Amino acid sequence: MTEYKTSENKGQQGETLLKVENLYKSYNRNTLVLQNVQMALKQGEFVSIIGPSGAGKSTLLRCINRMIDPTSGSILFDGVEMTTLNKADLRSQRAKIGMVFQHYNLVSRLSVFENVLHGRFGYKSTLQGVLSLFTEEEKKLALEILDKLGMKEFAYKRCDQLSGGQKQRVGIARALVQQPKLLLCDEPIASLDPNSSKVIMDHLKDISETMGITVLVNLHQVDVALKYSDRIIGLNKGSIVYEGIPENLSNMAIRDIYGSEIEDLILE
Ligand SMILES: Nc1ncnc2c1ncn2[C@@H]1O[C@H](COP(=O)(O)OP(=O)(O)OP(=O)(O)O)[C@@H](O)[C@H]1O
């Protein structure tokens, strides 16, 4: 495992947490889904990735925690090169990266509380995991996080009795109980109505601002990216074609990002 961290550059607000360089991904030999992606995220930053369907947004997010293996390139996260980690080191490094999914990925028949505690699995031995052995501190942490997200009163409800917005708050709580440094959110509001979407985006913004956790969100909605992001990254056919603050995202830049799909965007 390659270690780059020093005592000086770790744990300080605003330091680089993630650095992606020369990242390429192809699922088959003919097509490159990501091409020469370069990006860096600071601690506590809120960054959105926008782009048309098929641009490679999900692939990029999933390469960062190696749910998908990149074809080549470097992903330096919290001082550690992710691309060359063995299974055990990858597991402990992944514990520091929470993931939030469009379809929540909860176990429907289990309670909210149990689903949230599943976020601790990355810190457990297989046996502890199988037996669902959680400490009192872990249970307290889970309840505190549910409280922060306005979900404490639902702790003992089964997840299949919740609305979409409530399920997504459970998904966020499960990611937060990992005590992550980075949250990867793959279309977290794509299945939600506007009111629930606002609740979720407000929570994600609050998490970056008050907990200092870096948040990287894939979004379809440009207006949402403009409202919440410190920085926006625009992806088109696997390449970054825009990177900058929301104020600088011109109509021309939006055309570069969405290309021939611009009409769909305006109609939305
Ligand atoms: N497992 C896979 N095997 C082969 N091709 C894949 C696989 N996953 C994604 N792709 C292809 O990679 C390209 C990028 O897909 P990806 O899901 O990363 O894009 P996206 O920008 O997230 O799209 P969307 O907004 O529709 O979710 C698409 O052409 C897709 O068909």
UniProtKB/TrEMBL annotation:
Domain ABC transporter as annotated: residue spans: 18-262
Keywords: ATP-binding, Cell membrane, Hydrolase, Membrane, Nucleotide-binding, Phosphonate transport, Translocase, Transport
One GO MF term: ATP hydrolysis activity
One Gene Ontology term, aspect cellular component: membrane
Pfam family, one: ABC_tran
Annotated EC: 3.6.3.28
Sections of the chain in a coiled coil: none
Top-rank taxon: Bacteria
Record InterPro entries: AAA+_ATPase (IPR003593), ABC_transporter-like_ATP-bd (IPR003439), ABC_transporter-like_CS (IPR017871), ABC_transpr_PhnC (IPR012693), MetN_ABC_transporter-like (IPR050086), P-loop_NTPase (IPR027417)
Protein name: Phosphonate ABC transporter ATP-binding protein
Gene name linked to the record: phnC
